[in-house]
Amino acid sequence: xxxxxxxxxxxxxxxxxxxxxxxxxxxxxxxxxxxxxxxxxxxxxxxxxxxxxxxxxxxxxxxxxxxxxxxxxxxxxxxxxxxxxxxxxxxxxxxxxxxxxxxxxxxxxxxxxxxxxxxxxxxxxxxxxxxxxxxxxxxxxxxxxxxxxxxxxxxxxxxxxxxxxxxxxxxxxxxxxxxxxxxxxxxxxxxxxxxxxxxxxxxxxxxxxxxxxxxxxxxxxxxxxxxxxxxxxxxxxxxxxxxxxxxxxxxxxxxxxxxxxxxxxxxxxxxxxxxxxxxxxxxxxxxxxxxxxxxxxxxxxxxxxxxxxxxxxxxxxxxxxxxxxxxxxxxxxxxxxxxxxxxxxxxxxxxxxxxxxxxxxxxxxxxxxxx
Length: 371
Description:
four-stranded antiparallel β-sheet
């Protein structure tokens, strides 16, 4: 993989997957960081799509000062306190509480946690990082823990390194000082990254840099710059992750890019694609009846799905494809044993999602300490 930073020259317009028409006096939403389809489309145009260039993408991630990769906050934390499945903490005061045995197990604060939340104690509001630097994630993969002090924001942008600028667009009637009744008004959100921040991607194709490419709508451009230092950071995390996967035992799967877990089902001859928050091949460890085979997935922590708009392309045309809904980056999965994804198999159709950078997992050992 060759690693590059993408630094915006101005704002970026990255519209979300909701239908939008200026004629309906609509509000055009925006999504950030951009998804793999947006990045791949920009790179394809740069590499001359007509030549049928193919590549594999990793990311995108956030990057500070062109030197440090940043990853989304793991969602299996409340403030700076980790959550664990209740079955994994025998000393928890709710260990024997009644719960549905056929659903993912409830997540609780561990009994061995020695760092109670203290936001209200000193009367000072504390900002927590929403994006973690490479050093913190590296330690997380090594030890299975995040030092509470590493959650605190150290410099601007670690809680959210961009601002949203709302922009209205008006068209005026000819000869009048009034907005047109039809197609005359709409509002959209633009993204402006803070100084020093950029996006980072890995591509298995070497590109001559520096250069510029168009990213998002309205022709806004970014500077593409080679950054080999980021490659070393990613390789370090990949080696640790693979070591943890091979080690086995209770593990956490940390999703660092949107996870598209899609399955097609047929009903009365109609084929419907259904997305869910965890991989379909990961079966729950708790079964509904004795005829089912228990799986490895004990529980997971996630939040609102990310809507992704795709397109069907061929040589002559490009048309919208059905939306898919991805598990948000930062989702955390608790498994009795590590389990790979169908998407990792290059012989399957769904491997396309991995080629576009989706469903990237880092594996973390589960470590508890009652002392």
